[in-house]
Amino acid sequence: MTFRWRVLLLSAAALIFTIIRLAGQKPSVRSIGASAESLPAMASEVTGMLGDGRLDIDRIQTDTMITGRTHERLVQHHQGLPVFRGELVRQMDGSRAVSIFGRLFQDVSVPTMTPAIEETAAATIAERAVGPDAAASGAELGVLATPGGYVLAYRVTVRSSWDIQTYFINAGTGAIEEHASRIRRQNALITSGTGVLKDSKKVSAIQTSGLYQTADVLRPATLLTLDFRGSLTRLNNFAQTGRVFSSDIGATPSTPWTDGALVDAHVYEGWVYDFYYRQFGRNGLDDHNLEVVGITHPLARADTATYPANIVGRFINNAEYLGDGFILYGDGDGVSFDYLAGALDVVAHELTHGVTEFTSNLDYVDEPGALDEAFSDIMGTSVEFFYEKSGHGPQRGPNFVIGEDVTKIPPGYVRSLQNPISTGNPDHYSLRQYIGTSTDNGGVHFNSTIVSHAFYLAVNGGVNRVSGISVPGVGIANMSRIEKIFYRAFAFLMGPRSQFSDARAATLQAATDLYGASSNERAQVALAWTAVGVQ
Amino acid sequence: MRTSFICAIFVLAAAPAIAQTEWEGRVRIGVSGGGQLDTMRLNESIVLTKNVEPAPLTTSQANKTLPLVDAGATFRLNGNLGAGVSLSVLSGTAGAAVSAQIPHPFLFNQPRTVTGLASNVTHREVAAHTDLAYVIVSDRIDLALSTGASFFRVDQDLVSDILYTESYPYDTATFASAPTKRVTATKVGYNVGADATWKLSPRWGVGGLLRFARARVPLSVNGLDAGTVNAGGLQLGVGLRVMF
Known about the structure:
The structure holds two protein chains of two kinds.
Chain A: H1 3-24, E1 28-34, H2 39-52, E2 55-62, E3 69-78, E4 81-93, E5 96-106, H3 119-130, E6 135-146, E7 149-159, E8 164-170, E9 176-181, E10 184-187, E11 206-208, E12 211-213, E13 215-216, E14 223-227, H4 232-241, E15 251-252, H5 260-280, E16 292-296, H6 309-316, E17 318-323, E18 326-329, H7 344-357, H8 366-387, E19 401-402, E20 415-416, H9 440-443, H10 448-460, E21 462-463, E22 470-471, H11 479-493, H12 500-515, H13 520-531
Parallel strand pairs in A: 14-16, 16-18
Antiparallel strand pairs in A: 1-5, 2-3, 3-4, 4-5, 6-7, 7-8, 8-9, 10-17, 11-12, 12-15, 13-14, 17-18, 19-20, 21-22
Helix pairs in contact in A: 5-7, 7-8, 8-10, 8-11, 10-11, 10-13, 11-12, 12-13
Chain B: H1 2-14, E1 27-39, E2 43-50, E3 53-60, E4 64-78, E5 81-102, E6 112-136, E7 141-159, E8 163-166, E9 173-177, E10 180-199, E11 204-221, E12 224-243
C-alpha cells in the first residue's frame, strides 16, 4: 500500500467516524453574551453567519427607549431551515453592533433534510394526540434539538377545548418529539371589588343598538372584554375554534357598569397598555397594537362545586394568558380567591406574558419559564406602583406582593418580591427547585421569585436572607429606572432559551445602554443579582 | 361710582340755566341715538359633564359700548312732576373667551385646560323704563331728572358646549369650537337719569340723554345655571325733542 492510498484510507475512516459521531451527537448549546471585549469578534462572526445563511433576520424591532437603535432577532438556520429555539438578538446603533445575546446550537446535523411525512400528516398526528376536538393550524418544518440529537421536525399549533399546545412532530418517523402548552398561567389571586373592590373607574366602551359594550376603541390597540357568562358552551366553542362573537362582548343596557370583574378586566387592560406606552414607548403586546381580548366569567363561580379540581384550578381560581392577545380571568371560587380581574397586578402580569410572547418568547419551562414569570411579576408590580399612589387604592398604596387584592387565603397574596420565602418561594439561586421536572413546568412560578427578588433589591434595597448581602437600591422614587432596565433586557436583549445568568448579563447591558457603565443603576442591579446568587 | 360722578356733573352743568319756571306743556317726547357703556360683561360659568366627570366652563367677554336707540315720552302729572315711559334697544355681537377643564378620558382628577374663542356671541337688550320725572324748565334749556323701574328683556348667546380634538394618550386637548345657544331672560331693575333739552322753538328742541340702568339677569342654558349678566349700563344719547 502506497503512502497515497494510506492517506486516502485514513481520510475515509476519519470522514466515516465524523459522520457517525455527528449522527449520534447530543446537541450542545453555545451561549453568547457579547457586549464588550468579545463584541468585535462576535459581531464579525455573526456577519459571516448571516452571509452564509446560518443566521437569518427574522424581525427587527425599533428601540423605543434609545433613539436610533434597533434590535435584530436572528434565527439560526441549517441548510435553509430554521433551527427551533436557536436565536440571537443583535442590538444595533446604525450599522454598529452594540451587543449580541442569545444561544445557538452547535454542530447541527441531521441525516436528511427531506421530510418523510407531509405537513398535513404531521398536523393530523398532533390533532389525534390531543383529542377529538383538536384543530391544528399550520406546520413549520425545521431542525429540532432533542436529547438524542438533531432531528427534522414540524412545529404544529393545536387548539382544543381546554388548551392551545405546540407540538413538534418528527418529520422522518412521525413521532411526537415534544409538546407543551402555550398557556401562560398564574395561580389565582383573588380580588374583591366596582370594580370588584367597589372603586369607581372610567370604562372605555362603545354603544350600539341601545347597548353599551366593553370595547375600548380609544386606544391605538382595540381592547375587547368578553363575558362568557359562566357558560361552558361558550368556553368550549372558543377553545375549539378560537373565535369570539360580538354577542360575547360584555354589555349592559345602562351604565354605570355593575359587573366588577368585567369592569376591572377592561379598565386594567387599558391601564396596562398605557403603562407600557408611557414608560417604554411600547405599542401594545406586539408593539404593533395587537388587539387584546380579555375573557371574564369563563366558568361561573356558582358552579364551582360541579367541576373537578383541575378545572376549578385552571378556569375559576386562575388567570391565564392564552397567547395572541387573549387573556382569561377566572371568577375565583369566592373562598380562596375573588374575581381575578380585580387585581391590577394580576392583569398586568398576564398581559406581560403577551409582551414576552412577542419579544424574547421565553420557553415556558425551567429557567426561561421562570424568567417569563418573573418578568410578569416585575411588570405587574411596576404597573401597580405607577397607578396606585401612597395612601390610595384598594390596599392603601402599592406594594411588592402579587395578587393581594384578590387572595383570600393566608398570607393574602400569591408571591412576594420583597420576601419570597413568605409563600415558600426561593429568595436565592441556591434554593431553586424542580428544574428539569414536570412540576410547575420546571418550577416556572416557584423559581421566578429569585429574579423578581433581585428586582426588588435593586429598587427598594435590602439584605438578602441567604447571602447576607446588603443592597442599597436606587429607592422607590427611582423605581422606573430599574423598570426600564428590566424591560429593555427582557424585551430586547434576551431569547427563548435565556437562563438566569443571561438575564443578569442582559440587565447589565441594558443598564449600560440607558445609564452608563459606571452608573449607580447598573451597580445596584449587579449587586442585586449577586445578592440572590445569580452570576 | 363713575356713573354717579358723571350724573352729578351733568346735573350741575345744567344748574346755571335753571330759571325755575313752570312746565307748561302736557307731554315731552324724545328720540335719541347713542351708546351704552359697560355692556356685554358676560361671565358665564357652567359645569358640563365630560368623560363622566364635571367639566367647568367659563366664558367671558370684554366690556364694550353698544349702539343704543331710545324713545320715550313724559307726561305731566302735577306742576313740574311727570311720569315717563321709554324704550331703549341695543344689540351687539362679539367674540367671547372660553376656558374649560376637560377631564381625562381614562383617569379621574386629571383635567386638561382647553381655551378658545366663541365667535359671534350676540347680546341684545330691550328695556322699558318707567319713571317719575321732575322737569326743571328755563328759557333755553329744560332738564328732566328721572328715576324708576326698568323692565329688561335680554337675549343672550351662551356657550352651551365645547368641542375639542384630542389624541392618544390624551394628555392634552385642543379647542375646536364652542357651540352657543340663545337664551332669553327678563328681570326688573332700576334706572336713574337726566335729559336735557335745548329748545330751538317752543315745540322743538334737541336733547341729550344720560341714564344709568341696571339689572342683574340670571341665565341658564340647557338646564344649567350659567351665572348672571349685567343688563343695562350707562346710556348716553342725543336726539330730537318734541314738547306739546
